[in-house]
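Collaborator request, handled under Task 6.
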Amino acid sequence: MMRVAGGTNDLFQSAFSSSGNEPPSRVSSAPMNSVTRLLPAVLLACCASAAHADETKGPLGGPTYRSVGPDGKVTFTDRKPTDPQQRTRQLGQTVTAPLVGAASGPFDLHPATTMPPHPPAAEGTTPPVDVSGKPFPPGLPDAILDVLVHQYFVQTLNEACVRQRPALAERFQTGVRNWRDRNAEILDKSNRISFARFTAEQRDILRAAARTRLAQLVPGPELAEPERAAWCDRMGTDLARRQFELVGDLRVAPILYFDGL
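Structure tokens returned to the collaborator:
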């Protein structure tokens, strides 16, 4: 076996010399110094990120709730408050506001003469958005709902009253046909907006809300036959007298002003 003089270092020295290359010099300490200087900044960033994440968690890692009492006092707790007078939201959680406002009473089919209020989304919630991801114009979902309730009512009036009073079928059918002709522009635009700007799930929500409001307007199954007949006569007369028009109803103004089609 050949003996290499000078040990391993002499072997590497010889190899670099024979190839015309210089042996590698000691690694510069500059990169190491740069890393050392960056460490404090990295640690501070990590601490800040952890602190921000902890704001949404309670002391045991659970959710944190922010509540505002009737007196305006703000409190934070890891237990969800049960007091209905407190406005509570969970920190770090995004909640979408309802598509339409809650009903404050029976639906009024008569044209509204004033614009209904459209308050902004409550604190801690984001407004509902259309298929493009943009928030709906104020009042537009409620306006579409208003049209749906009218449509459902007129359709129900026609179907129920033709069965109830077959001798007056022509009267009811003519009244419904004339109502649709008078309100055709609003009906058409509302339908186009609902399919162009609302998702299928949102349309289902609107239909369900319209059926709920409709149930407050039509006779229930417990109503006696004479009372049903009287209801049909009264509603048929009001329809012919244009008591249930969409034209002139300020609740549908957001539909008329909408230009996003």
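The cover message to the collaborator said: "The first helix runs from residue 7 to 18. The first strand starts at residue 65 and ends at 68. Please let us know whether this matches your experimental observations."
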